[in-house]
Amino acid sequence: MSESFLHYLWQYQYFSREGLCTTDGQEIKIFHPGIHNTHAGPDFSNARIRIGMLDWAGHVEVHVKSSEWITHKHQHDEAYNNVILHVVWKKDKDILQRDGTLIPTLELRDRVGEKIIFQYKKLINSPEQIPCANQIATVPGIAKLSAFDKALTTRLQAKSEEVWKLLDRNENDWQETLYQLLCKNFGFKVNSEPFQQLAKAIPVKLIMKHADKPEQVEALLFGQAGFLEGTSGDEYFLTLKREYGLLSKKYSLIETQLKKAQWKFLRLRPANFPTVRIAQLASILCSRKNVFSHVLGLTSVKELSGLLKTNTTSYWHTHYSFGKKTKEVVTAIGDESIHNVIINTIVPLLTAYGKYKDDQSLVDRAVELLNQLPAENNKITRVWTKLGLACKTSFDSQAQIELYNNYCIKRRCLECVIGGSLIKPVQ
User: Fold this and answer.
1) pTM
2) In this structure, are residues 365 and 346 in contact, taking their beta carbons and an 8 Å threshold?
3) Are residues 105 and 233 in the same domain?
4) Of 31, 171, 172, 308, which shows the fewest CB atoms inside 10 Å?
């Protein structure tokens, strides 16, 4: 028996309420079980319950054993002074309030059907990556859709909170926040860490001072990234090196300069080399004085792709790295990479800004962008496809990733609509 399962039973009242009474014989009538609290304090707040002849309003605390009240030291926490009912699987000890009165206790172990317990254990103990893999075909379509909707909402909320944390560190500067998010995602996991460090070392306001001179922007970014160290190189390398030498002294940048060794090239296709990504980032930053304001005005994937698919300086049409000319033509950032940036930068930013400004239209636009994008193809989406739940858009794939990572793997079946529909007792 787990406390989370007891929370589930109490929240949805999945137990026999016939002849309901406390362990000391007082009749119980539940008007409202309360609101589930996932933060510190009692498990359910604002419950309304009649115990004996009196109506009570207050909190409900849930434990597997009543003695866990003492184990968890609730007797020393004033937040638990207004607990009106202690719901337990098994009562093994009387629990008293600070004034010496007995806390009313409801024991559930003889009131829960065997089928619901069996189904819960079947899911939680499943050897499959997705616990309901062998049963999901029996789940109604509406439950699956609801689970995906809830998962995407949860994912966008979590990503919004990450954006707000970054915004707070940037003193509510949305332009700087977008710039740092863009840098992070231009690293595409492999180089996300050095890209984040680069963004912190070169603020976007400094970049904007030189946005009308692409070579100077490249000098700032490549120099601060550590790629302009050494003396050997072609003419363009030496030009950027000279520019960085002047700019680094002007803005006192040397102390925060990265090392070239921090960047990863191994097993990357040349088009994904960090040098190419920095050149592409520079071209985006030079294309608009205020990228954040411009992003807010774009409503479709096509428009955003136009913003992200800007041409780099001519040097990077024939180079993947400094001093090594390639025979093939280096193309602009590809569609798959653009989609990745929209999913991981633009969508979270629009969602966070929409919630920050209480503008639902921006949140809706973020969701619509996901619906316009093709589904991602990765090991997680392929697992769902094998179960007959192939996705068509990034809305679907993002929901599947959230369900898999934060519900299925963690066995949070009780919080999932699909899991709940399987565990729910037949009426």
Assistant:
1) 0.85
2) no
3) no
4) 171
